């Protein structure tokens, strides 16, 4: 048996067991439709806010998988600027953040455009605007020309986890990959997203950034699956949560003779968990929207609106009048008056736990 999948003849004629993936594939497609339907009920600004949050998470978490920490507020500001979304508190951003954001937005906003060598080179150059990866100078905006090994362990005791396609074959393999990617195949885009991710990682065509580009390629195909550029879940956040298993499955399937069932199963289950996370978050958003619909005509001051929004977003800890005063930047007396007013209006109630201090909570609605 070949050491690596690409050493087999016709290695890209992947096969899998339909019986193993049919059920989970159906669940994923069902969840995508359900979430899409729920999002359409929301108002424009809520949808925009949710999409901005998910895109931000996707960019931050995809970099974090590679051990790179990006500033959340910088990423959020960069995306908002590029999409023309008005948000408060925009912060300045640097070239590295802007580069990662540019790649992600090109993949998800221009999801119907063909994936070309030139486009991939543009993404790669955007990821490494200085031409360096950490302390190392790398070839940017072009395929690698040297051997690529994924190694761990101390010097002299290195363990080789993977040796990628030889450099002289990268261009041929990538031409084949791009031709497959751009042709109309009778394959659901969700499955195509999983296969493209694996195929690209196996080739490992660049000196660095292969993982992030593979995830952008997946996101591009998942966007095609929904036929909408709006992102309401983050696959990268879920991959980060399951990073150990992600690498384990990749490592195992890279030695297969062409059967990638285990990889497809893992990818679909990971996607399902990402969608369920979003569904939970959506319940909060829908609950908040319903609350404000109920209280459209209720006279409330700015302090009350501020604290109520915090409660609806999933407030940490107990709400006491002292905490209210701190959040709303007002005196303890004013805080108590605000709270009593909301109790009278049937919005807040005292917690039943009793105890020395009085805590308040939202009344069920």
In short:
It contains 14 helices and six strands.
Task: Kindly describe this structure.
This protein starts with 17 loop residues before the first helix and ends with a strand. By secondary structure, the chain is mostly helical. The longest helix is centred in the last third of the chain and has 34 residues, at 261-294. The protein has two domains: 5-287, Fic-like fold (Orthogonal Bundle), CATH 1.10.3290.10; 295-362, Winged helix-like DNA-binding domain superfamily/Winged helix DNA-binding domain (Arc Repressor Mutant, subunit A). α2 (44-65) packs across α3, α2 (44-65) packs across α9 (235-241) and α9 (235-241) crosses α11 (261-294). The strands form three sheets. The chain has a two-stranded antiparallel sheet with strand order 1-2. It has a two-stranded antiparallel sheet with strand order 3-4. Strands 5-6 form a two-stranded antiparallel ribbon. Helices cover 59% and strands 5% of the residues.
If you consult CATH, what is the topology of the largest domain? Answer: Fic-like fold
At the first level of CATH, the class of the largest domain is: Mainly Alpha
What is the helix tally? 14
The residue fraction in helices comes out at: 55-70%
CATH architectural group of the largest domain: Orthogonal Bundle
Order of strands in the sheet with the most strands?
1-2
Structural class based on helices, strands and sheet pairing: mainly alpha
Using the CA coordinates, give the radius of gyration.
24 Å
How many domains? The number is: 2
- In CATH, the homologous superfamily of the largest domain goes by the name Fido-like domain
Poorly predicted runs of 5 or more residues: none
Task: Please report the distance between the alpha carbons of the first and last residues.
Answer: 63 Å
């Amino acid at each position: 048996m070949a050491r690596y999948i690409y050493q087999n003849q016709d290695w890209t004629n992947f096969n899998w067991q339909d019986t193993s993936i049919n059920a989970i594939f159906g669940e994923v497609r069902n969840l995508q439709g359900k979430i899409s339907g729920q999002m359409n009920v929301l108002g424009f600004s809520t949808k925009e806010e949710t999409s901005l949050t998910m895109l931000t998470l996707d960019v931050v978490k995809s970099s974090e998988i590679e051990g790179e920490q990006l500033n959340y507020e910088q990423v959020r500001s960069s995306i908002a600027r590029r999409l023309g979304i008005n948000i408060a508190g925009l912060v300045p951003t640097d070239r590295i953040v802007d580069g990662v954001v540019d790649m992600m937005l090109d993949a998800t906003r221009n999801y119907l455009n063909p994936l070309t060598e030139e486009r991939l080179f543009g993404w790669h150059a955007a990821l490494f605007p200085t031409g360096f990866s950490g302390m190392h100078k790398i070839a940017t905006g072009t395929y690698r020309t040297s051997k690529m090994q994924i190694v761990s362990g101390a010097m002299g005791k290195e363990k080789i986890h993977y040796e990628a396609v030889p450099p002289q074959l990268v261009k041929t393999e990538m031409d084949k990959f791009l031709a497959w990617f751009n042709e109309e195949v009778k394959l659901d885009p969700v499955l195509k997203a999983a296969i493209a991710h694996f195929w690209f990682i196996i080739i490992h065509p660049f000196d660095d950034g292969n993982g992030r580009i593979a995830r952008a390629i997946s996101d591009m195909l998942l966007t095609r699956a929904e036929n909408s550029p709006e992102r309401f879940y983050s696959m990268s956040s879920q991959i980060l949560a399951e990073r150990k298993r992600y690498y384990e499955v990749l490592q195992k399937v890279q030695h297969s003779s062409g059967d990638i069932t285990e990889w497809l199963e893992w990818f679909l289950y990971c996607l399902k968990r990402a969608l369920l996370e979003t569904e939970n978050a959506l319940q909060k958003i829908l609950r908040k929207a319903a609350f404000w619909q109920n209280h459209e005509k209720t006279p409330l001051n700015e302090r009350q609106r501020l604290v109520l929004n915090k409660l609806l977003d999933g407030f940490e800890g107990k709400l006491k009048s002292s905490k209210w005063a701190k959040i709303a930047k007002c005196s303890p007396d004013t805080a108590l008056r605000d709270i009593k007013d909301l109790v009278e209006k049937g919005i807040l109630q005292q917690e039943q736990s009793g105890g020395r201090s009085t805590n308040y909570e939202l009344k069920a609605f």
